[in-house]
Amino acid sequence: MESYISKDLLIQEIFHGIFAIPFAYLLWKKTKSSKSALSVIALSYAIDLDHLVDYFAYYGVTFNLSEFLSGIYFELTRRAYVPFHAWEWVIALAFLSYKKGRKSVFTLILFALLPHLIYDSITVGSIVFYSIIYRASSGFTNLN
């Protein structure tokens, strides 16, 4: 059986989890909630579901798991919409987390998004690329 997950994708996903661990631990130390800590790690992976926007923009309503996991649609379109991958969400979530408290869902999402964006910024080689305002102003052109 052919593997759908490339070595590079598997390594990237492992590192998304590793980068989320300190944030999950910090939240656990403040809330004593294992559920919250595990949610941070799970949500750090779920953020990549926004890749579906780019996938469907290229392929339409059909779905092929192998093509989705390959990410080839980013290269073929030379675009990256990825709406959850944006520092602007961090600003909004930080404000909402401050207002609603550390046990809020906003804090969970914030603590999942931050390490995800940090890791992705390192691997892509650009912090600015993960501004949705920047991507929109450049027609969502992909750096690669």
Q: Would you give an account of this structure?
A:
The chain has 144 residues and is mainly α. The chain is built from eight helices and no strands. The protein has one domain (7-137). Helix 1 (7-31) runs antiparallel to helix 7, helix 2 (34-46) crosses helix 7 (105-124) and helix 6 (87-100) packs antiparallel against helix 7 (105-124). It is globular.
Can you give keywords for this protein?
mainly alpha, 144 residues
- Give the integer mean of the pLDDT values: 92
Number of helices: 8
Domain count, please report it: 1
Helix content: 55-70%
What is the SS-derived class?
A: mainly alpha
What portion of residues belong to β-strands?
under 5%
Total strands: 0
Q: What distance separates the N and C termini? A: 30 Å
The 3D shape can be described as globular
- Gyration radius from CA atoms, angstroms: 16 Å
Largest sheet: none
- Element order, helices and strands? HHHHHHHH
Residue runs with pLDDT of under 50 for 5 or more positions: none
What's the helix and strand layout?
Blueprint: H1 7-31, H2 34-46, H3 51-59, H4 65-70, H5 72-77, H6 87-100, H7 105-124, H8 132-137
Helix pairs in contact: 1-2, 1-7, 2-7, 6-7
